[in-house]
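Need residues for this backbone.
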């Protein structure tokens, strides 16, 4: 089987270095990423075609390498938590008026290889449903009291390895959907699988520890890559944090059969991987944008059709926007950097725009 181009990228030296991966991310174009994703999808193992299932009962607790054991135990405990509570996690919101989304974790360490000679990732860390679409979760665990992360484990490398997992799931999407529906009794949509890059709070904190500005640069690039990949090829990428403040975060319990199973000590919570404005790189100060007086009303420009309101779009005076809760409004003037004044009936509101998704 041919080499996986995403894993080839992930293994590059610059991608693995803490003080260099931002440059590697900036140099990576959407065309390169789409090409590598399609190549990884073409070379992915076809497990169902080999007559093998993805979701099967797990054996007793695995004897993995010490450095991988905690991540696998927490992943198993997260699945057990969702099953015991019989409800998914609520996804954190960037803005209060965003629609609600859920993430349900259904299985961990899901096998990918169909044959011994298959190269690349041997399993998926976690699999579940993002709302009703298949979600592949690349999981990174760093304890809350850790002072450093694993050598070479940068956010860019995690993204590229996660996209490799997503490419394999996309290549096997029909079989995975059918198994999820049968094994877990869930309704699964035919939307393309999504990638969730999930890491504990401490993982993200250590990635940003060197300086605020270096952190802003790499966050900006990871957001750009996710947006460009979705626009060009369709895959959705979400960056999330996992709040597990207590240490230890889990404990090993023994059931009535004498088998060991990890269980979380406290209730886990999903959070944003970073604040909504983290990807903004500071520039030199510039004069404040002049705000038009409130008594001057700008009427809708009939040559411009109404558009749905999205924080990632750009709007100008005279544009008509459709807001999910405020209704139809007309843009009046800038409201400051990254903001606009919008007139809804007789009430003016300040909304954000031109933001990174």
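Answer:
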């Amino acid at each position: 089987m041919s080499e996986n181009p995403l894993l080839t990228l992930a293994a590059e030296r610059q991608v693995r270095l803490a003080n260099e991966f931002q440059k590697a991310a900036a140099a990576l174009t959407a065309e390169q990423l789409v090409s590598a994703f399609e190549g990884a999808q073409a070379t992915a193992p076809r497990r169902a075609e080999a007559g093998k299932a993805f979701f099967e009962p797990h054996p007793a607790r695995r004897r993995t390498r010490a450095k991988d054991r905690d991540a696998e135990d927490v992943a198993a405990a997260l699945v057990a938590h969702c099953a015991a509570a019989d409800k998914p996690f609520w996804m954190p919101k960037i803005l209060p008026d965003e629609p609600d989304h859920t993430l349900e974790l259904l299985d961990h360490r899901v096998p990918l290889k169909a044959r011994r000679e298959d190269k690349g990732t041997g399993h998926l860390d976690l699999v579940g449903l993002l709302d009703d679409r298949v979600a592949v979760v690349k999981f990174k665990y760093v304890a809350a009291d850790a002072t450093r992360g694993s050598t070479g484990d940068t956010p860019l490398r995690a993204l590229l390895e996660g996209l490799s997992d997503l490419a394999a799931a996309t290549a096997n999407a029909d079989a995975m959907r059918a198994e999820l529906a049968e094994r877990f009794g869930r309704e699964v949509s035919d939307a393309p699988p999504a990638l969730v890059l999930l890491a504990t709070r401490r993982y993200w904190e250590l990635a940003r520890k060197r300086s605020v500005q270096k952190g802003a640069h790499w966050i900006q690039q990871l957001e750009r890559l996710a947006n460009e990949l979705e626009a060009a090829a369709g895959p959705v990428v979400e960056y999330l944090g996992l709040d597990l403040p207590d240490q230890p975060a889990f404990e090993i319990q023994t059931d009535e059969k004498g088998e060991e199973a990890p269980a979380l000590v406290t209730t886990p919570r999903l959070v944003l991987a970073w604040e909504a404005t983290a990807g903004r790189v500071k520039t030199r100060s510039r004069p404040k944008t002049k705000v038009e007086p409130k008594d001057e009303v700008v009427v809708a420009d009939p040559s411009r059709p109404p558009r749905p309101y999205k924080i990632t779009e750009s709007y100008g005076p005279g544009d008509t926007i459709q807001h999910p809760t405020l209704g139809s409004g007309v843009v009046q003037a800038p409201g400051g950097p990254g903001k606009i004044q919008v007139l809804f009936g007789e009430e003016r509101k300040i909304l954000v725009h031109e933001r990174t998704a």
